[in-house]
Amino acid sequence: MALRTIRTEGDPVLEKICKPVKDITPRISQLIDDMLETMHDAGGVGLAAPQVGVLRRIAVIDVSEDGTDPVVLINPEIIEQSGEQTGDEGCLSVPGVAGKVTRPETVKVRTFDKDLNEVILDAEGLKARAFCHEIDHLDGKLYTRLVEGELHEVSYEDDEEEE
Ligand code: NI
Q1: What are the CA-CA distances from residue 159 to residues 48, 154, 155, 162 (Å)?
Q2: Is residue 62 in a domain?
Q3: Are 57 and 18 in contact (CB under 8 A)?
Q4: Which range of residues forms the domain containing residue 144?
Q5: Active-site residue flag, 118
Q6: Annotated active-site residue in 134, 161, 162, 163
Q7: How many domains does the chain have?
Q8: What is the pLDDT of residues 93-110, one digit of tens each?
Q9: Low-confidence ranges of the chain (pLDDT < 70)
């Protein structure tokens, strides 16, 4: 496994629409392992492939405090959503700031796992927010375009969740 460089806002790769994954090649498996390691190393709760410069529909999420709940999403799609939550959101590609974003409170996602088996995942709260945020990355959308009001600075000590 290896850490990958996280691309930051302004890099055109973050604004492109990613292509679906058709096969799990050794290269894709390596990418997934590296993304998990990079996300955990950076203290984020999610990371999408374009954030490490790869235009494929792959994202990883882990909303646990201790890195014990990794979820791999391949070609994910939100198929149902309900409710609403408004709260601070951040992104590893937009370091040092957060902003208020409204997302669904619950989502149902159809996705494929790391072996390309189709699975349906239900999520609520922070996990639902992370799913929405990461799936937006796969369509070239950063959360900053959804922020209500101003972005505000966060310091590492604030323990803000970055996605
Ligand atoms: Ni992000």
Answers
A1: 21, 9, 8, 9
A2: yes
A3: yes
A4: 12-153
A5: no
A6: 134
A7: 1
A8: 999 999 999 999 999 999
A9: 156-163
